[in-house]
């Protein structure tokens, strides 16, 4: 411590003391060595003695070692072989353990490849999922596992592409075969409806239960999943009844939906499917330009639409969320608007009532089919009421031609019946009743002509044709009865009335024909009540019902009869004018011929024979015609005397003219048409008679004296007329 404390001469003192200490130790060592020296010498001596023995031992050990080494070489070789085998065994055990880990991976991958080759893509995706989550993590350190891991996403994309390709093929297939699908569905719906109607007619008690079973059968058939493609292989003449779903292999849709759902792209698939189906819907709803020309065009159009929605309904019920009810309703409403617009446009081109009726039947089957699949079709039945009006118009045009043909072919003569059988044939077609005629013996003649029973039968045929359209419209009997009566009224008041009016105005229709037309319309008017009974029997609606409409045939036939009567009056006057035009008086003759003019006698004979034909006319008609003819004849004769071109008349001509007027008066007094009271018909010639008497007697003083008095003998003689004739 003092050395470190740096005391003066501390180091030197320390070194001195240290040397002293060393010397002390040396002396102690020397003493110790001196004490043990003898023992050391003895040990060396012993050691020298042992040296010779040690060398002998060394030689022996060396020899023993050599001999031991020679003997152990084989053991060493065996031991090394054992060691090598044990290393191999350990390696084999390790390899087996590793292979046991790898084999399931390889087996699953081989299974994956096999599933891909047989197109079991959904199972392949499940296998991939097991590989990724369970097997590959155990052996991820191996290179082949890394290759597998890298290949799995590629396989997924390949599966997506293949399934999408299958889906596109499926969409193309159903687009091409949608008409076949729809045709099958419509045929089955029609058969089901026919069967149900037959059951209803056969047994109303069991009708409800049978319909319930039928609906269950339809639903089971509608939701049945089939995986058989029969488009190319199905025999067209196969007797087996197939449902609409039996014609379609829906597996591509299911497979693609499952694959995209597993891959997490379900929404992408749904959007793609709906987009493609909307495009197909627009194509299906686009009609061909010539669709309205044939019923096949409409049938194909409806079949395609039904096929489209049958597929969508099936997809709706067998998949979860691929399509929804909202989606199908929206698609249907869009389609329905387009369908109605198309039908309105194309049906307006149809002029054939048979084609319109076929179109109506197709629309009904189309609506019933889709209604069976849950789609609302009320707008289609509303459209049918519009088409019904068009159908009635086409019927009216067709029946207008039929009526014209009947009128053209009629001979306008009473129908002769030679025996009871012929009479029965006529009254079976027309409800003719005449007790007086029934009492007469055969052969006899019916007052009506051939056109009457034909017209009556055609009106009934029109009612039947109109009824055909009213069937299957889901309307009550009262509504159908009302529709039939309205359409029949249109036929009577517009079509038949127009045909009659045109017939009456035709130049070749003479007085005889006009008389027969009046008789015919009279009997047709009486038959209207039988037409009403006929409609009531069809619809089972009593005529006593408050809302039952009446037929307007009475007014139709009355108007036609009035027109015919007016035409008779006109043609009679025209005929009289023709006779008057051939009159050839010698106005300067000195004296008369002593007999009436030939033209006038011919005219009177014509009138007499004509009025004989009027015996079947109502009394007032014949009387009016006769009075009109006499008045017109009187007026024509008066105008002949007062003609401005006639400048001079001799008394001989006046006498001849008087003879002609006398014949006219004799004709009037002979009562050519019964029913006139007293000398009513002769009054038609009173103006001429008084004027001629004035000139024949030359009684001017009396005329002038009594002029203006009610008792005047020449009261009907106009002064200006008398003066004009006096000047001549």
Automatic annotation (TrEMBL):
Residues 17-186 form the Exocyst complex component EXOC6/Sec15 N-terminal domain. Pfam families: EXOC6_Sec15_N, Sec15_C. The keyword Transport applies. Gene3D superfamilies: Dsl1p vesicle tethering complex, Tip20p subunit, domain D, Exocyst complex subunit Sec15 C-terminal domain, N-terminal subdomain. The keyword Transport applies. GO terms for biological process: Golgi to plasma membrane transport; intracellular protein transport; vesicle tethering involved in exocytosis. Residues 380-728 form the Exocyst complex subunit EXOC6/Sec15 C-terminal domain. GO terms for cellular component: exocyst; plasma membrane. Keywords: Exocytosis, Transport. Belongs to the SEC15 family. This is EXOC6 protein. The gene is Exoc6.
